[in-house]
Amino acid sequence: MKPGLAIQPWGNYSLALAASVECLRVEPWTQRSTTPETLRLGVEASPEFACLSFKACTGHFIKAAQEGVRYGVMVNSRGTCRLRYYREIQQKILQERGLDLFIFGLGYDGLKPPLIRHFDPDLLPFLRCCARAQQKTLAVDALEREVWRVRAVERQPGDATRVLNECLADLDRARSVPEIRACVRTFKPRFAAVPIDATRVPLRIGLLGEATLLRDRYLNHNLEEILGGLGAEVRNFFLLGDEVRNIFRIGLFSRNSRWRLKRLARPYLENLVGGHALDSVAHALRCAQEGFDGVVHVAPAGCMPEVSVRPILRRLSQDLDLPILECSFDEHASHVGVVTRLEAFVSMLRERQEKKPRKRP
Amino acid sequence: MKNSHYLGIDVGSISANLVLIDAEAQVVFADYRRVDGWPLRAAQAALAALRAACPQAVLAGVGATGSARHLVAAALGADVVQNEISAHACAAIHVQPDVQTVIEIGGQDSKVTIVRDRVVVDFAMNLLCAAGTGSFLDAQAQRLNLTIEEFSRQAVRSERPTGIAGRCTVFAESDMIHKQQIGHRQEDIVMGLCLAMARNFLGNVCVGKEIRPPIVFQGGVSANQGMRRAFAELLKCELIVPEHHLVMGALGAALLVRRAAPAASRFRGFDVCERAIDTQAFTCPDCANACEVIEIVDRGEIVGRSGGRCRKWEGRAGPR
Questions:
Q1: Is there a single domain that holds both residue B231 and residue B115?
Q2: Mind listing the pLDDT tens digit for each residue in B80-116?
Q3: Are residues B216 and B126 in the same domain?
Q4: Which of A100, A205, A239, B250 is the most exposed, having the fewest neighbouring CB atoms within 10 Å of its CB?
């Protein structure tokens, strides 16, 4: 039997990540989002002050270990957020609970990351597998873009999400690059078949902040769907395709390259704060330039990088007349409270739009 | 229709409020009562009071707001379901068109809304802390063996308010006990509490917001003379407490439904206040979230649902 490998949940990207480890001759174990059960496990085991992302991830690994999974993998890059030490702490928590699961860190550790060193795949299958994972990541990017657009104008609430889930299931079944490409070609027509109300003018809202919360629909209380249901076309600025390109320094000249973002954010942020702080500032500026109606900034309570950028965002919001809603989440956040804030934010933006419409380029 | 009226109902954590306005947006009837743990029954009782007071009213629309809005909307049949932040702002702008800031403190939440040129431009709501809300004042009044009305009267009499640590309400309470034990006068302690609560609100909820007069103060806590005085002292300006300060949420909901002017109201008739409306829960089997969804049952028929993380069940009637 192949050993199991638990992968941190990354929203819809989980399936692409699962595809990336196939060549390691392991059985990927992942979930599309945190569940109430894994969060409960994580909260019990984690220090009280750790951020929500940490707790969710810890719970995920505990659940995996309980189901007999022996290995895990998580991002712990050289990022300057506390994420840097999270792998070590989680490993210790698992050990103390007598759980036998080894977590590989995916960071900069020589030419061959420890995960590859341990499983030592053959080169050709490995490259083929990377290509598949990359294609699936880009496919999910494309799906996300479609669903944001359609959800804001769908006639029957829930249609866009249903089509999204069908597409994801098909994508998960695709085994080769040509199969993935064929699957991607069906996306557009499938979303085009959703009945929409073309007379509605959707608001445009940018979502930015901490990556796990942006991606995990359980942790962020289904932010994208709530906003979509209120008639807002969201744009979630965490797209894994862009992120991967940045990590490997490909696409230096793409719109979302680190270099571009740095230049964009420079009037407000010169130093590295860690995490996705730079992205948050740069993307907020981009939202203002592109005439977005508002921005929702999402962070776990106590997230160091994102808390540091909040004063910057407040300043930016005043300077550029861009409404920004700050949302902090922890395991105690009440769903009603989140929905109430989002509804109030959307109705405020609607009122503004009626009184003085923002210019859309 | 000339004789048409609009009903707004706001059911929150502590109180259920109901306002009936006529076609010219004049308040015809207002009702404020405590929920005491039964949101639906409180709403039904308020409706019964309305029927007794204005039996001739023809309802052209119903608006629901407050944290129990979805439950109430399904049970009564509402045309507009709006969050309480927007409803409160709408009412404040209606009664005070030049308002720049709205402070609203209710049973368990407190919010500040910034208005410019009759448009809401920013708002904030207490997030991780319920300090300075009605529930806390209630609890402290009880500890001092005062009714909330006596608490309010005492606060105004104070000449030297006691300094009380207000960062956290649990610590505020221990500090208050300490001040009692070293012999501070009761009215000074009461006023000290109000000041601590107001400072906490201004420091936590209003941080980074530009508080400009005219300021409208509303919600359950605005009935408290001590809190009015505390805000006036700290903000160095008089606050406007509107006539219907207790029921502004309901007034806002009524104004919103009047603006929406539904062609035919979904109101299920005054009879709903007599029927035993029941709720039942089920666990949605569709994903790993396993959300608990509440079904609102009236005479064996499911009239609405609420709960769940996705929007699938919200407001959906009929069989599963």
A1: yes
A2: 999 989 999 999 999 999 999 999 998 788 899 999 9
A3: yes
A4: A100
Q: How many CA atoms lie within 13 A of B300 on its CB side?
A: 0
Give the pLDDT score at B274.
83
User: Average pLDDT in the A278-288 region?
Assistant: 91
Q: Are residues B135 and B172 in the same domain?
A: yes
Distance CA A141, CA A162 (A): 17
What's the gap in Å between the CA of A182 and the closest CA on chain B? 28
Residue B146 within a domain: yes
E strands, chain B, where? 4-11, 15-22, 27-34, 58-65, 80-81, 101-105, 110-116, 119-125, 215-218, 239-240, 278-283, 292-298, 301-306
Distance between CA atoms of residues A326 and B147, nearest Å: 37
Q: Are residues B123 and B45 in the same domain?
A: no
Pair (B200, B109) in one structural domain: yes
Residue B92 lies in a domain: no
Q: Is A316 helix (H, G, I), strand (E, B) or coil?
A: helix
Mean pLDDT of chain B: 86
Whole-angstrom distance, CA of residue A26 vs CA of residue B44: 60
Q: With beta carbons less than 8 A apart as the criterion, state whether B88 and B256 touch.
A: no
pTM of the model: 0.88
Domain residue limits at B184: 97-241
Contact B121 A323 (CB under 8 A): yes
- How far is Cα of residue B8 from the mean position of the Cα atoms in its chain? 12
Q: Mean pLDDT across chain A, nearest whole number?
A: 86
B86·A343 Cβ contact <8 A: yes
B167 shares its domain with B229: yes
If you average pLDDT over residues A108-120, what whole number do you get?
Answer: 69
Question: Do the Cβ atoms of A88 and A102 come closer than 8 Å?
Answer: no
Give yes or no for A33 touching B (CB within 8 A): yes
Report B:59-78 residues touching A (Cβ under 8 A).
67
Orientation angle between helical segments B225-235 and B148-157, nearest 10 degrees: 40
Residues B74 and B196 in one domain: no
- Asked if residue B113 is part of any domain, the answer here is yes
What local confidence, expressed as pLDDT, does residue B95 receive? 92
Domain check: are B50 and B113 in the same one?
no
Rounded Cα gap, residues A239 and A224, in angstroms: 14
